[in-house]
Design brief:
There is one protein chain. The protein is an alpha+beta fold. Helix content is about 25%, strand content about 40%. The longest helix has 27 residues, at about 220-245. The protein is globular and about 55 Å long.
Length: about 250
């Protein structure tokens, strides 16, 4: 009897080991550009080109914004909600990013290359500024991650054509008062591949923040965060419509 129990336990442990794979955990801090106060924390787990980004507003730490990015669907983000629903966030990125190399700088103790990065076909002259380095630990393990919507696979594909490679140490944007993301740490962790899946979730196609608040399904804090995201999504759709009309 003891032998049978031991065999079952051994097989169970072996199954867990087979299921878990070595992935990467990343952490960035976010501040408003030009200011020192940290307002958000960005935590990322990535495995085999799939990533989950969790953006935590430090004023509302119990209501993080979690987004799933799938290797199989590179132009779509999936905002994961706490009620086991998700909604789609289309992101019509260029099939190949455009870069403009601006020079070398030391950022947070890392020797970096500063790059002006264009990820979308825009008409408003907005762009991303990114400082890359190969110095962070395990940098080779997160070359395929997605960080705040930036595909490092696409980034490094275009960098290789310029005999460069690296991962973001700092990310910021051309708009005034935009957030600035600074690298904090990277570490290898065991990840279950099944977390990068929408199994068990269903798509939310119509519940607005106003509807959910009226139904007492969300707190006032969650309402504020959802309302901010809805405004961002609405602005994005308007920009996409404007681009499409001009094509």
């Amino acid at each position: 009897m003891k032998q049978i129990a031991f065999t079952i336990l051994l097989n169970f442990a072996f199954a867990i080991l087979l299921q878990a794979q070595k992935g990467i955990y990343l952490e960035y801090k976010a501040s408003i550009k030009g200011k020192e106060e940290i307002v958000d924390s960005l935590k990322i787990v990535s495995l085999n080109g799939n990533s989950i980004n969790e953006l935590i507003n430090l004023k509302y730490p119990k209501s993080p914004n979690k987004t799933l990015f799938l290797k199989s669907d590179p132009n779509m983000g999936y905002r994961i909600m706490q009620n086991k629903t998700f909604f789609k966030m289309p992101d019509s990125q260029l099939s190949e990013y455009k870069i403009n190399i601006l020079g070398n700088e030391i950022i947070n103790g890392f020797n970096c290359i500063k790059i002006e990065l264009t990820t979308q076909d825009r008409t408003d002259n907005q762009y991303t500024l990114i400082w890359i380095s190969t110095a962070p630990p395990y940098s080779e393990n997160f070359m395929t991650a997605t960080i705040n919507g930036i595909s490092l696979t696409k980034l490094n594909n275009i960098l290789k054509k310029n005999n460069l490679n690296g991962v973001p140490i700092r990310i910021t944007y051309s708009q005034e008062n935009s957030l600035q993301y600074d690298f904090i740490k990277a570490t290898l962790i065991d990840l279950d591949p099944s977390i990068f899946s929408l199994n068990g979730y269903h798509e939310d196609k119509g519940s607005s923040s106003d509807d959910l608040l009226k139904q007492n399904k969300i707190s006032n804090e969650k309402y504020d965060l959802m309302k901010q995201q809805e405004l961002i999504t609405k602005k994005f759709i308007q920009q996409q419509d404007s681009i499409n009309r001009k094509k």
